[in-house]
Write a structure and sequence with these properties.
Elements (H helix, E strand, L loop, with lengths): L8 E4 L5 H12 L3 E6 L2 H15 L3 E5 L5 H10 L5 E4 L14 H29 L2 E6 L12 H21 L4 E8 L5 H14 L3 H11 L8 H11 L11 E4 L10
Parallel strand pairs: 1-2, 1-4, 2-3, 4-5, 5-6, 6-7
The chain binds NADP nicotinamide-adenine-dinucleotide phosphate (NAP).
The site of NADP nicotinamide-adenine-dinucleotide phosphate has 30 residues, from helix 1, strand 2 and helix 6.
């Protein structure tokens, strides 16, 4: 299926590794020119080179912390008028909510709620004027099924979800869509690190921990970044203009609910 995106421009945030990287590659395969962001320059340069060599699209690097105004300015300076915006950043730390300080909450809100909103605010009017725009926010399955030790993530991402639910309905008539993808377990560095920490506490190896998680999932495995990237690219397709304000849960069926 041709997604009708050849020649479009995208900003893909937090894209040197993991889900952002896979999304950038999936969009590039559709002929989308990219600005990709991350704090670490070496991994970002490796990803940019790989995507450009594999697909032939233009890939520019925005090195910086996307949760800061300066980091966002670098990305927006390279691509002030994107057709596609993928918001993403690292997830907040786990812990008992009693130990979270105001600073912890501010950082989580900044990374996982206010940064996506700032990026949307900076780009959406141009999308409306051009009559094409696709915004996908990478959030978490924790938005629908809160994870007890991830209170910062549950709260900040739910705030973003509520805001964009309203905005998505205001911009849809201009062929500008905003949707969220809610990842369950995908095999990225973040999941490997999480599994290693949990494994240590339980006295088993990280491999055993990952195998247990895979077995517990209805799909009998964890997700691959590639299948995440392809789903995200589909939400950006020219044909996806009627998919508005949705929260697409990609978790292998782990959230056990009849609806949603
Ligand atoms: P990952 O494999 O650890 O990759 C994170 C990427 O984001 C890296 O490229 C990293 O590069 C970049 N990044 C992190 N913080 C950044 C910042 N402040 N500014 C710019 N770039 C930043 O993580 P992932 O698994 O792809 O996760 C992506 C998001 O999905 C996270 O918010 C995570 O919580 C969420 N999520 C993931 C899963 C999963 O199973 N993988 C499940 C639920 C939710 P630098 O470190 O160099 O900046």
């Amino acid at each position: 299926m041709d997604l009708g995106l050849r020649g479009k421009r995208a900003i893909v945030c937090a894209a040197s590794k993991g889900l952002g990287r896979a999304t950038a590659l999936a969009l590039a395969r559709e002929g989308v020119d990219l600005v990709i962001t991350a704090r670490g320059e070496a991994a970002l340069a490796e990803t940019a080179a790989m995507i450009a060599a594999t697909t032939g699209v233009k890939v520019a690097m925005a090195v910086g912390d996307i949760t800061t105004e300066a980091g966002r300015a670098v990305a927006l300076g390279l691509c002030p008028a994107p057709d596609i915006l993928i918001t993403n950043a690292g997830g907040p730390p786990a812990g008992d909510f009693r130990n979270f300080s105001d600073a912890d909450w501010q950082a989580a809100l900044q990374a996982n709620m206010l940064t996506p909103i700032a990026l949307i605010r900076a780009t959406i009017d141009g999308m409306i004027a051009r009559k094409f725009g696709r915004v996908v926010n990478i959030t978490s399955a924790a938005v629908k099924t809160p994870i007890p030790m991830l209170g910062l993530s549950n709260g900040a991402r739910a705030g973003l979800t509520g805001f964009v639910a309203g905005l998505a309905r205001q911009v849809a008539r201009h062929n500008v869509t905003i949707n969220n993808i809610l990842p369950g377990p995908f095999l990225t560095d973040r999941l490997r690190d999480n599994a290693a920490t949990a494994a240590k506490a339980a006295g088993r190896s990280a491999e055993e921990e990952l195998a247990l998680r895979a077995k517990a999932n209805p799909a009998g495995r964890v997700g691959t970044p590639e299948e995440f990237g392809d789903a995200c690219a589909f939400l950006c397709a020219a044909q996806s203009g009627f998919i508005v304000g949705q929260n697409l849960l990609l978790d292998g069926g782990a959230s056990n609910a009849a609806f949603g």
